[in-house]
From TrEMBL:
Source organism (scientific name): Solanum pennellii (Tomato)
UniProt protein name: Protein NRT1/ PTR FAMILY 1.2-like
Domain of life (superkingdom): Eukaryota
Subcellular location, record wording: Membrane
InterPro entries xrefs: MFS_trans_sf, POT_fam, PTR2_symporter_CS
Transmembrane segments: 59-80, 87-107, 127-147, 177-196, 202-222, 323-345, 365-385, 453-475, 529-549
Major localisation: membrane
This protein's UniProt keywords: Membrane, Transmembrane, Transmembrane helix
Signal peptide positions (record): none
UniProt family annotation: Belongs to the major facilitator superfamily. Proton-dependent oligopeptide transporter (POT/PTR) (TC 2.A.17) family. Belongs to the major facilitator superfamily. Phosphate:H(+) symporter (TC 2.A.1.9) family.
Membrane topology, as annotated: Multi-pass membrane protein
């Protein structure tokens, strides 16, 4: 009497009735974050007197921090806080960051004095002003690190019904609606929020995201009594992979010998017994039992997980290592996207009118990337796949590797087109006498930039979907969620690479008193050279991709297999 099973609790809580609270929480957070970040380069250059290169580097570091903390947030949520607390605390952190950013637009002492175009030297921000601005970025990054990886899985927890034969279909439908809502939220952010900032100023433009975060917190907490709150699990996969790395390092001097399958530690929760694969044999030390009395508890579990890892964990780590070369080929696509902050400065100098009385905000042109991405995914899934499957015999249409190759090729085309368009814009600006006036309007329509945004959207969709599907084919089912986490890490790594590239390029091209390619005055700088550099790097990355594909064709993607009795015979493995 008085006890409840988990299934009985789940019938009273969770379900579709919780979806509005969870999806609205994530949507409001995304609109607030993306709406504040997309147009931020203009705010930093205007109110902090930063150069275009410095502002772009700071935005890149902010994005990298947010992506990197997503992994930390996922581990803390799974092992300690639980997903409910992670989303709740993360939303509050983001709210605090938005409030601080809004206050910088409200309190004049938190920003620098405006710098006119006639001043040769402008006063930069003080240490205190930078500290306040940085604290805003830090709070929003911490918030995103908890909300982004945990919100989607928290929603899945509410719909999980293992005994329901329709469970997988319900979860898949939820994921579709979740990503669709994120797409709508992103479009609202880069259109409505940006329009408010351009039309009514930064005080209202940053105030609206603060109100959205209040709504985000409120809607999520209102649904609290209805949520299923799954207990934390200390056997987190990422922690387990870290334990395997540490155990292998600790035993790096241990000989790699095998006298039988019993010399390796196997997880008691696994139904299949695996033998360590032959590649990356140095990692096999992590699962070797050297002294059973010291290494094992009476119940057969590892006494110290950081000194003895299971074969299953080691094989999962190897699977992750196998996909890293292919993962690295996708970084350049994200780098191309992350340095598009300069495109805001370009479109700001051009005619952005669609109708005589309506002008598209400069930062809102990224909406064409999102539209192209969405249209291409629908077109490929509904039209191309049925047609291609008739000729290829594959129900997927094109293979993941082919899609990645197409995505990287289109990315090169997008950067080349960006360089050509900027060269035309710059020559026209100089011909019209605007070389010393970066705010002057060039007699050229900003719609010239739509094709390059569209190509980059197609490249992102084609490569991104193909890469995730490729990961799913190589990773064990227990690591399916890692595919999404790797994508997040890729965003963070590419943001760091983009920031380093911009800073280095700005420093190298401005030596000797020369005008930097990435000058804040885009009419004096050479953004076309910058895009040609990205084109060259993208082309090198495409060649690197073809080289990596040859490595995978040699059979290096060997997967774990079930052990046979004859495989347990004595053998001595060479050191590696």
């Amino acid at each position: 009497m008085g006890t409840e099973t988990q299934d009985e609790v789940n019938t009273r809580k969770g379900g579709l009735r919780t979806m509005p609270f969870i999806i609205l929480n994530e949507s409001f957070e995304r609109i607030a974050s993306y709406g504040s970040q997309t147009n931020l380069i203009i705010y930093l250059m205007t109110y902090y007197n930063m150069s275009a290169a410095t502002g772009t580097s700071i935005i890149g570091l902010w994005a990298a921090l947010s992506g990197g903390l997503a992994i930390v947030g996922a581990i803390i949520a799974d092992c300690y806080w639980g997903r409910y607390n992670a989303v709740a605390y993360g939303t509050i952190f983001t709210f605090i960051g938005m409030v601080i950013l809004w206050l910088t637009s409200m309190i004049p002492q938190l920003t620098t004095f405006a710098c006119s175009q006639f001043q040769h030297v402008c006063n930069g921000p003080t240490a205190f002003q930078l500290a306040v601005l940085s604290s805003s970025f830090a709070f929003t990054s911490i918030g995103a690190g908890f909300v982004r990886p945990c919100s989607i899985m928290f929603g899945a927890d509410q719909l999980e019904q293992k005994g329901n034969p329709e469970n997988e279909k319900i979860i898949e439908r939820y994921f579709n609606w979740y990503y669709a809502s994120n797409g709508v939220a992103t479009m609202i952010a880069v259109t409505t929020i940006i329009y408010i900032q351009d039309r009514y100023g930064w005080q209202i433009g940053f105030g609206v995201p603060v109100l959205l975060m209040v709504l985000s917190i409120t809607t999520f907490l209102i649904g609290s009594p209805l949520y299923i709150k799954v207990k934390t699990d200390t056997n987190n996969l990422l922690v387990g992979l870290s334990q395997a790395c540490v155990a292998a390092f600790r035993k790096r001097k241990t000989p790699l010998s095998l006298t039988g399958c019993d010399d390796y530690y196997h997880s008691p929760y696994e139904t299949e017994v695996l033998t360590p694969s032959k590649d990356f044999r140095c990692l096999n030390r992590a699962c070797m039992i050297e002294d059973p009395e010291r290494d094992l508890n009476p119940d057969g579990s590892a006494s110290d997980p950081w000194n003895l890892s299971s074969v299953e964990r080691v094989e999962s780590l190897k699977a992750l290592i196998r996909i890293l070369p292919m993962w690295s080929t996708g970084l350049m696509v994200f780098v191309d996207m992350n340095v598009f902050a300069f495109a805001v400065l370009q479109t700001k100098t051009m005619d952005r009118h669609i109708f005589p009385h309506f002008e598209v905000p400069a930062a809102s042109f990224s909406v064409f990337l999102i539209i192209a991405l969405t249209i291409w995914i629908i077109f490929y899934d509904r039209i191309l796949v049925p047609l291609l499957s008739k000729y290829t015999g594959s129900p997927r249409g094109l293979s993941p590797v082919t899609r990645m190759r197409i995505g990287l090729t289109v990315s090169c085309m997008s950067m080349a087109l960006s360089a050509i368009t900027e060269s035309i814009r710059r020559k026209r600006a100089i011909a019209e006498g605007h070389e010393d006036d970066p705010n002057a309007l060039v007699n050229m329509s900003a719609m010239w930039f739509v094709p390059q945004y569209a190509l980059l959207g197609i490249a992102t969709a084609t490569h991104g979907v193909g890469q995730i599907e490729f990961f799913y084919t190589l990773l064990p089912k227990s690591m399916a969620s890692i595919a999404s986490a790797i994508d997040t890490v890729g965003n963070a790594a590419s943001s760091l690479i983009g920031s380093f590239l911009v800073s280095s390029e700005d420093w190298l091209t401005s030596t000797g008193g020369k005008t930097s390619w990435l000058s804040s005055n885009v009419n004096k700088g050479h953004l076309d050279y910058h895009f040609w550099l990205l084109t060259f790097l993208s082309l090198l990355n495409l060649l690197y991709f073809h080289f990596i594909c040859r490595l995978y064709d040699t059979g290096n993607d060997e997967l774990p297999h079930v052990a046979d009795e004859e495989e347990c015979d004595y053998r001595l493995l060479h050191e590696s």
